Amino acid sequence: MSILFTPGKIGKLELKNRVIFPSMCNFYCDEKGFVTDRLRAFVEARAAGGTAMIIMPGSPHGTPGPGRPALSDPIYYDGWRSLRDICHRYGCKLVVQIHPAKAQAGRDPSLLLPDNMDQQYIDLVVNSYARCAAAAREIGLDGVEIHGAHAHEVAQFMSPYYNHRQDAYGGTPEKRCKLAVDIIRAIKEQAGEDFPLIFRLSSSERFPGGRTVEETAEIVPLLEQAGADALHVSTGMPLSEEFISAPMDVPDGFNLPQIARIKEEVSIPVIAVDRINTPQLAQQVLEQGLADFTAIGRGQLADPDFVRKAQTGEPICLCLGCNQGCRKSVTKKAIYCVQNPRTGREDTLRFTPAPHLKDQKILIIGAGVSGLEAAIDLALRGASPVIWERRDCPGGLMELAQLPPSKSAMARMVEYRLSMAKKLGIAIHTGMEATPEKILAYGPDLLIIATGSVPAVPPIPGLEGAGVVTGDEALRNPALVTGQVAVLGGGLVGTEVAETLAARGVSVTVMEMGDAIGAGLNKNRMVFVRRRLEEGHVTLLTKTRVVSAALPDITVEDETGVHTLTGFDTVVAATGRKPENQLEQQLKAVHPHLPVYLVGDAKQPGMAMDAVTSAALLAASL
User: Fold this and answer.
1) Which of 11, 230, 548, 618 has the fewest CB atoms found within 10 Å of its own CB?
2) Which tens digit of pLDDT belongs to each residue from 399-441?
3) What are phi and psi of 381, to 5 degrees?
């Protein structure tokens, strides 16, 4: 048996395997912090998928909100009991991560800083954590986790960056972890010595002035001596947020060397986390003794059946590390996933069998991710869709999306969907140009157009001339783009073209009309994109509108007025996209009664998550 699926123990708590779903603020609660059906459905999907333990964040004090369920008052207990019952039904354990509400949720922001906390407030914090843990035991939860990572209250005390005290709580590594030690001891006193307690902390804070891995190695024995039953080793702080939920720009398992260093100093189990997103890597972590358990969070957002499929050998829908959905909770008010449109919609988006679809002749035009997703979801409902793809292979724009630096993981979107299409027996006909005549001859009962989008070249004088290529052409054949290059547009495509060309040694200037480069890119990914642009010596011009182009000259208008830049050999137009959906209008003219639906970029150009979600929502509604 693979070590990944062997039982393990944290204190007296027995876990059925070595895979844990770590705490994430999900924004599935209501505005008052109560558990909702949406949260219950989300938890059930992961518990049913085989994970050994789910760690759910819970607010012990402060004004509660939708980010995580509250555990600050008995009025919240029934919601937690419902989550407990769901987990236990599947042999999964439920642990609450004591995760304080933010200052803006009802507390004085200045109190968050260790230097400003008086003894009375510190005592209140310690008691609040202990009281929350005692409530967790009363409710029947399986343990608690203290959130001592990522610069929350406890983490700030342990960080030399935030903690400048010179009393019992600061000045040395040992004193800086006094608050943590006091909380652990208080929990053991109020909740019981045998109540499992996990302590989550950053291996290092990855920022100048923050805690180093060597200082962390000094303090973890003190946490063990105080009574911690396991350590959950993450990384980073808000000033190095790009590592907290590291994107595809960071190597898989990048935190493992530091986790292994921490494990050398303790005898209690260590949980490894951060970009452990395949069963093979998780197995390697355990076999090499780098940790005792693996926390797989985003991997189980992408596929809640991750553990079960890893055991059976079924295809797993792997995390991309794109951060399009899971790190957008501040703006979207919920966790979503580009790979899994059901994440956050488990209670509403269901692909239930539909007898009326079984005998319908359903034709899908386009085998990009939206067309593949629509076909798979319809097949799950009992339909037998057929896909026509004009190119020689499926994939659509994912062929280009995986080409820029650090984006090879985007290929997983197509790989998984092709494996599912094969499993479900979905016919994909490549080299098939769809025309109204061919479609009418085929005689579908229902047509889905998933033909994607094409570059939108603005009507700027000179862009129709020689030396001008689109962003798609530059990504497909970067070797053809040489000399001094002007990239018009600093959005997703423009930045990816710029970093791709710069990596080849090409001199690039990006001209963007807006205030910022990379609008729409997740901020964690943008940190690394900007770094590569700087390393490639890419010139970034914002608030710069191109008036005309007549190579080698480009006339622009910026805050200083209209002037001409010269010396360019090539112009790359990366100024947006437009739907490729002419087929819809053509069909309406010859067959106005045929039900026709648009999905993905053919409906509205957007990110990959938008394409997948639109297809899934349509498939579920038919």
Assistant:
1) 548
2) 999 999 999 999 999 999 999 999 999 999 999 999 999 999 9
3) -90, 0
Q: How far apart are the first and last CA of the chain?
A: 43
Q: Are residues 193 and 107 located together in one domain of the fold?
A: yes
Tell me which residue of 437, 439, 453, 387 sits closest to 595, measured CA to CA: 439
List of E strands, 332-463 = 362-365, 386-389, 427-430, 446-449, 453-455
Where residue 620 falls among pLDDT bands split at 50, 70, 90? Answer: very high
Look at the alpha carbons of 8, 12, 14, 18 in this order and tell me if their dihedral is positive or negative. negative
| Best CA proximity match to 409, nearest among 473, 308, 338 | 338
pLDDT attached to residue 466: 78
**In 3D, which of 99, 67, 71 has the Cα closest to residue 83?**
71
Interior/surface letters 164-175, b for 16+ CB within 10 angstroms, e for the rest: ebeeebbeebeb
> Model's pTM, two decimal places?
0.94
Q: Give the contacts of 509 (CB within 8 A, at least 6 positions apart).
A: 484, 485, 486, 487, 538, 539, 541, 565, 568
Q: What is the CATH number of the domain that holds 155?
A: 3.20.20.70
Q: Specify whether 303 is located in the same domain as 390.
A: no
Task: Report how many domains make up the chain.
Answer: 3
535: three-class secondary structure by DSSP? helix
- DSSP E strand boundaries for 330-416: 362-365, 386-389
Residue 615 falls inside a structural domain:
yes
Domain enclosing residue 496, as ranges: 468-575
Give the number of other Cβ atoms within 10 Å of residue 569's Cβ.
15
Neighbours of 357 (CB within 10 A): 19
Both 610 and 545 in a single domain? no
Enter the tokens of residue 104: 């803006």
Separation of CA 80 from chain center: 25
Q: How far apart are CA 501 and CA 482, in angstroms?
A: 9
